[in-house]
Amino acid sequence: MFRNFTNLEELSLGAVNISSVLPTTLNISSSLKLLNLRLTRLQGKLPHSIFNLRSLEILDLSDNSFTGNIPSKISVNLTHLTSLRLSSNNLNGTLTSWLFTSPSLESLDLSYNMFSGNVPLESFRQLTNLTDMYLSFNNFSGEWELDTLLSSLTNLESLYLSYSGFSVTTNNANHYVNPGFRDLELASCHLKVFPKSFRAMKQLRSLDLSSNEIDGQIPHWEGEIGGTYGLGYVNLSHNFITALPQFQWYGLAYLFLQSNLIEGPFPPSICNMSTLYYLDMSHNFITALPQFQWYGLAYLFLQSNLIEGPFPPSICNMSTLYYLDMSNNRFGGLIPECFGKLTASLEMIDMGNNSFQGTIPNVYGDCGSLEGLSLNGNQLRGEVPSFLSNCSDLSVLDLGNNHLTGTFPSWLGDLSNLEALVLKSNNFHGHIQPSSTVESPFPSLRVLDLSHNGFVGQLPAKYFESFNSMKNVAKNEPQLESDAESGVTWEVVMLRYGCGTILGLVMGYLMLSTRKVKWFNAIADAGESLAEEFEEGWDLLNYAIEERGDVGTWMWNHNWIGDRLSHVINHKTKLAKCNC
Predict the structure, then answer these.
(1) Concatenated DSSP letters for 237-302?
(2) Is pLDDT above 50 for 35?
(3) DSSP H or E stretch at residue 183
(4) Where do the Disease resistance R13L4/SHOC-2-like LRR domain residues begin and end (predicted)?
(5) Burial group, residue 24, by CB count within 10 angstroms (0-12, 13-18, 19+)
(6) Angular region, 387: left φ>0, alpha ψ -120 to 50, beta rest
(7) Are 494 and 449 in contact (CB under 8 A)?
(8) How many CB atoms lie within 10 A of CB 70?
(9) Rg for the chain (alpha carbons), in Å?
């Protein structure tokens, strides 16, 4: 196929599956100027023939499965090559010398590979036409002096060194910096201070200094970076920053300051950033919140601080908010009636591990977009509010560790998307009744925790019959006679009852692999006597406890429910950097 285009100048097969083509057969036209084989599922060694195309200007082999080194010897000088993209492969080894003698090279992307070795900064200083350099996520070594690099590559506009292995230093001298610099990412580069050279970057759009060793207060001139409206994305998380000065980034959309040492009241300079869309201030030592003015904010993370006081009423006015996490703080008092505004617009609310009291407001109206609600670990009383029956998209409901009362809310079985229901450690009582409105209640349920309550009686067989998401259809395995009841394999069931009358003993999470659905029916009918049929389940439980310690804690911290609570942000939002 490729051998017949002898005069071809451009070949773009991006995202076309040509995995059956061997790289060694790519004898492409020598007059080719542009070759795009991105996302074509090619694998194996990089074909030497491609690097001998003397007219080549743009080469993109990214997002494939190439392995090995970049060819160290080529028969021609790639004097016309302006763009080389090899990112997201499995390439390794050291960088070849000819790479640094391509005088026309403007864009170099070697990110997301396994390149290694100590690359002297002087090597890149020869690429004077370079505008974009991507070396992130590799295994390089060595120390680079940032000011020297920026003053040498005077045309550089984008520099990505995050998790590259390089250590970046600065002497904070007054070196030249391209005023058109746009994107700078230096995450995990052992940087200890804010380089003063940033001050000259008046058109910077994106700045990532996360996971470094920067301590103390952010410099007062930080607000000058990006000019008046340029900077859209700033990530300073996972450092040792203690305070923010009074400055303003008027066009900022994404701000990450989590996992620092910021203490005291909420930084007032952030309150005036009216263009914020995403704000993460979690895992600091913030003690108080002011009135907010973020009318376009969609994601707000305040968890794991020391914030005291009642629920902030200004949050109720944020009609654009999608995701709110206030967990692990010291909030107290009643949950206000304006809570209804939040459930009408938000997809995820986490207010767990605070000191909220009173009842959960019974909201009237639509909460169709709500996917997750956690109020675990408060001092809430009363019954489960009936408005939750209107939350058709609800997938996670965690009301555990409160003082809620009443009988089992069987009407929650009508929620076809509910995957996790946690009601443990409350004051619920009485028999667990099956839903009377649907034939198959809880069809999507995968996690159920009713431990440490006052439930009595039998477990309704109707629930087990409809827990389809806890089952794994065994299509290819021969069925045993005992499988005939269901034709399914039970993978994991988590039902933990406190000391009560259902079995007359304390049960932990049951990790079951038996194919016998009647095993569960036997639990409901057995009372205090356990038949030999249970022995397999107890053996598995004992094994889980020996291997994992406290099974309940392990399941919460390391398994499905913890991941599911962050479903909205991970599944629906890919944080694209702001192109202002």
Answers:
(1) -SSEEEE--S---TT--EEE--SS--EEEPPHHHHT-TT-SEEE--SSEEEE------TT--EEE-
(2) yes
(3) strand 183-185
(4) 30-214
(5) exposed
(6) alpha
(7) yes
(8) 21
(9) 30
Phi-psi region of 284 (alpha: psi -120 to 50; beta: other; left: phi over 0): beta
Distance CA 142, CA 167 (A): 6
Token pair belonging to 168: 């970046």
Q: Which two tokens stand for residue 473?
A: 């259809």
**Ramachandran region, residue 332 (left: φ > 0; alpha: ψ -120 to 50; beta: rest):** beta
Domain-wise residue ranges, the chain: 407-580
Q: What span, in angstroms and rounded, lies between the C-alpha atoms of 408 and 563?
A: 26
Residue written as tokens 């598995």?
Answer: 540
CA gap 289, 302 in Å, rounded: 10
Amino acid making up residue 577: K
Dump pLDDT digits (tens) for 14-25: 888 887 665 555
pTM for the model: 0.82
Angle between helices 535-548 and 551-558 (to 10 degrees): 70
Token reading at 542: 């004992």
Query: Per-residue DSSP letters for 4-52?
Result: G-TT--EEE-TT---TTS-GGG----TT--EEE-TTS--EEEPPGGGGG
Q: CA-to-CA distance for 78 and 56, rounded, in angstroms?
A: 7
DSSP helix, strand, coil percent of the chain (3-state; round to 5):
20, 25, 55
What's the Cα-to-Cα distance from 144 to each of 166, 192, 214, 216, rounded to whole Å? 7, 13, 17, 23
Cα separations in angstroms, 197 against 107, 193, 202, 256, 345? 22, 11, 11, 21, 42
CA atoms of 499 and 453, how far apart (whole Å): 8
**In whole angstroms, what is the distance from residue 170 CA to residue 413 CA?**
60
Predicted confidence (pLDDT) at residue 544 exceeds the cutoff of 70: no
Count of beta carbons in the 10 Å neighbourhood of residue 292 = 20
Q: Does residue 579 register a pLDDT over 60? A: no
Q: Rounded to whole angstroms, how far apart are CA atoms 552 and 510?
A: 10
Cα distance from N-terminal residue to C-terminal residue, the chain: 43
pLDDT tens figures, 504-527: 222 333 333 233 333 333 333 433
Contact 375, 397 (CB under 8 A): no
The answer to whether 343 and 349 are in contact (CB under 8 A) is: yes
| Residue with token string 């079985």 | 413
Residue 6 burial (CB count, 10 A): 9
The residues facing 358 across adjacent strands are 380
